[in-house]
């Protein structure tokens, strides 16, 4: 006699449908995130090329590297709202298609002014993060959302792909040719998301006007708390992944391709540790993960203050810095999934993601100014250590009961 005839409960059909599409949509979203993040970080790996061709100062270079972060940060707010309204499938495709224009125009820009203008709009692909978090969040049950958002967050490895391949592609095909290839990949990714991905059956469009939803999200205490923590964790990752090539060239005299290879290693360490941070948050609690992450950043920043020899301990310190920053980014969004109701996750993600992006905007500017003034990066590392220590103390005090 079957279990149903014995009177036992049948499996939840909604959960079965959900699980049947989880892996596919998580993989697709992670892939799209990686591609758009590669596009977002096209300028940083070629910083030395722009330096030589345009005769830029360290401050001008840091501004050029940081400028895409502005739109990539602030644009996450409206994009997160639109993701709640139209769903991740359509929004991923839209961002891929719209990003083609600035990608091509940056590749053909011949002056510093035009590079700044199109670099500003190159921030558009960086908004995809605010699409992916609510998209994958809706596909997973609460107990596995830390894992899901952590795996999705590994798509920030697009910065590693950019750091490693962009200089090599530029050498092989030239800067314009490299940007044409990136535009083609974006177009294919947009078509793939439209044709192969699906929004979760549990997702329903938010029909309330955008501004009231943003105001409601701003009233949620967790929005502000997680924004600060994400500005430190993800902002630190973005700052290093975009500015590290210039830092390595200035401080350790690496060639552009060598600096790109080492920056790729930095990004890969963060990519691998982000899903680990989400998974550990599901098992041990996000607060414990964040305390370990910020504590590790403090220690690595102190080591780097003293400008240690290259590779060991400097190279190891950068890799460990990336590992702890990745843990932190995974922990923050596990905390968001725990503290914020599902209907507001997209909007809150946009706000928190914007804070994270802005957190990555200012450090390159500070590092460039510090290096111009002193010829060293020591003060920048001191500021990083102090900021990470503040985040650690705040996490411990604000979420002791979480």
Automatic annotation (TrEMBL):
Subcellular location(s) per record: Cell membrane
UniProt cross-references to Pfam families, sorted A to Z: MFS_1
Ranges of residues in domain Major facilitator superfamily (MFS) profile: 25-402
Keywords, comma-separated and alphabetical: Membrane, Nitrate assimilation, Transmembrane, Transmembrane helix
UniProt entry tagged with the keyword Transmembrane: yes
SUPFAM superfamilies: MFS general substrate transporter (SSF103473)
Annotated TM spans: 26-43, 63-83, 90-109, 115-140, 147-165, 177-196, 228-247, 259-277, 289-306, 312-336, 348-371, 377-396
Membrane topology of this protein: Multi-pass membrane protein
Keyword Transmembrane helix: yes
Similarity field: Belongs to the major facilitator superfamily. Nitrate/nitrite porter (TC 2.A.1.8) family.
Protein name: MFS transporter
Protein's organism: Nonomuraea bangladeshensis
């Amino acid at each position: 006699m079957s279990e149903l005839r014995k009177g036992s409960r049948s499996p939840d059909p909604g959960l079965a449908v959900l699980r049947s599409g989880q892996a596919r949509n998580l993989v697709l979203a992670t892939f799209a995130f990686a591609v758009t993040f590669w596009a977002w970080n096209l300028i940083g790996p070629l910083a030395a090329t722009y330096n030589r061709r345009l005769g830029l100062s360290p401050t001008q270079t840091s501004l050029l590297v940081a400028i895409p972060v502005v739109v990539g940060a602030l644009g996450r707010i409206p994009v997160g709202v639109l993701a709640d309204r139209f769903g991740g499938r359509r929004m991923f495709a839209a961002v891929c298609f719209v990003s083609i224009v600035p990608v091509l125009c940056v590749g053909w820009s011949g002056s510093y002014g035009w590079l700044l203008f199109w670099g500003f709009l190159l921030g558009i692909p960086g908004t995809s993060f605010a699409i992916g978090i609510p998209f994958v969040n809706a596909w997973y049950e609460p107990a596995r959302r830390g894992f899901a958002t952590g795996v999705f967050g590994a798509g920030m490895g697009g910065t590693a792909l950019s750091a490693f391949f962009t200089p090599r592609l530029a050498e092989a095909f030239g800067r314009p040719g490299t940007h044409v290839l990136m535009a083609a990949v974006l177009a294919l990714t947009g078509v793939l998301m439209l044709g192969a991905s699906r929004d979760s059956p549990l997702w329903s469009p938010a029909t309330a006007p955008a501004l009231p939803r943003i105001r409601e999200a701003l009233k949620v205490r967790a929005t502000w708390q997680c924004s600060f923590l994400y500005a430190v964790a993800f902002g630190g990752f973005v700052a290093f992944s975009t500015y590290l090539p210039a830092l390595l060239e200035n401080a350790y005299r690496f060639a552009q391709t060598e600096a790109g290879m080492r920056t790729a290693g930095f990004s890969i360490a963060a990519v691998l540790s982000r899903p680990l941070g989400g998974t550990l948050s599901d098992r041990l609690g996000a607060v414990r993960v964040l305390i370990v992450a910020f504590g590790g950043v403090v220690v690595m920043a102190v080591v780097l203050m003293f400008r240690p020899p290259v590779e060991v301990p400097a190279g190891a310190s950068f890799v460990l810095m990336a590992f702890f920053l990745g843990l932190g980014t995974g922990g923050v969004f596990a905390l968001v999934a725990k503290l914020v109701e599902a209907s507001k996750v997209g909007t809150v993600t946009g706000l928190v993601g914007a804070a994270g992006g802005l957190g990555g905007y200012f450090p390159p500017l500070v590092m460039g100014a510090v290096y111009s003034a002193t010829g060293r990066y020591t003060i920048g590392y001191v500021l990083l250590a102090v900021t990470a220590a503040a985040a650690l103390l705040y996490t411990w005090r604000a979420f002791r009961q979480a």
